[in-house]
Amino acid sequence: MTFRYLLLLTALLLPVGATASELLLSLRGDPAPGALLVGQTRPGAAVMLDKQQLRLTESGHFTFGFGRDDTGPARLYISEGSDSETYEITLAHREWDIQRVDGLPQRTVTPSADALARINAEAAQVRQARDTDSTLYGFTEPFIWPVTGRITGVFGSQRILNGEPRRPHYGVDIAAPTGTDIVAPASGVITLAHEDMFYSGGTLLIDHGLGVSSTYLHLSEILVSEGDTVSQGDLIARVGATGRATGPHLCWRVNWYQERLDPTTLVGEMPR
Ligand SMILES: [Zn+2]
After folding, report:
1. What domains, with CATH codes, occur in the chain?
2. CA dist 209 → 31, 57, 213 (Å)
3. What phi, psi does 252 have (nearest 5°)?
């Protein structure tokens, strides 16, 4: 979806500046909480999202995401020499589900002090991997589903675990039998491959460039190593039920640095 399409049909992007220098060559993605947007400007231009300077690839690509609780609007400012353009980005409204999960082992809902130390150390490893700041191009590829199956959990839902309110769910859960192949949804480099994390069991993380990463949880098998380069469609892991899971499924997550995004905003309809 191009910027012009959005402007003409939905008026979600309103040019505020005066010059029509066409610095914004394209902008893909529907602005909404949880969405990742990918744009392109002229190489050498500078791009600001509100007060944050965005990094560009050599081809002029840039990207940014909106968190679950972002309400917008956001302001995109692009400049090159004396040319500049400003766009106001209005976010669509989204509603969130409530998801009750019962029958989890109570030690995983209210962890012990020992478990908490382990959980915090593992969370720091994941945070560090998501801080990776490369200029890989994977984020510019239209993503594909890493696995297909019935969707059993959606992004943003408020979770009530064994009757206790907990953090929202930040991934999309896809049910599939243990051992089902998982493929890379876009190219990138493996930045974390961990056999057994407390919550997420077998856990894998791919860096797709400019802070965009994808994470794979509850894996039964990991088929790549940290530092490996993968292309879209490459076999990377197999579905499992390791860590805190009630049955075999893939929990797929996407981040822009530490901002948690909705993976389904990057892919089309689930293929059948
Ligand atoms: Zn999940």
Report:
1. 3-89 (2.60.40), 98-265 (2.70.70.10)
2. 20, 9, 7
3. -110, 130
Q: How far does the centroid of ligand 1 lie from the alpha carbon of residue 142, in Å?
A: 22
Question: What is the maximum span of the chain, computed from C-alpha positions, in angstroms?
Answer: 62
CA of 216 to the centre of ligand 1 (A): 9
Two tokens, residue 190: 């493996």
- DSSP letter, residue 240: B
Q: How far is the CA of 188 from the centre of ligand 1 (A)?
A: 22
Distance from Cα 17 to the centre of ligand 1, integer Å: 41
State in Å: Cα 227 to ligand 1 middle.
25
Give the DSSP letter of residue 137.
Answer: S
Report how far residue 83's alpha carbon sits from residue 255's, in angstroms, rounded to the nearest whole number.
32
Is 5 a residue whose pLDDT tops 50? Answer: no
Vertex 254 angle, CA 210 and 141, to 5°:
55
pLDDT of residue 6 exceeding 90, the answer is: no
Q: How far is the CA of 92 from the centre of ligand 1 (A)?
A: 24
pLDDT in tens, 15-57: 555 445 589 999 999 999 999 999 999 999 999 999 999 999 9
Report CA(200)–ligand 1 centroid distance (Å).
Answer: 9
Contacts of 272 (CB under 8 A, 6+ apart): 148
The whole-model pTM stands at 0.89
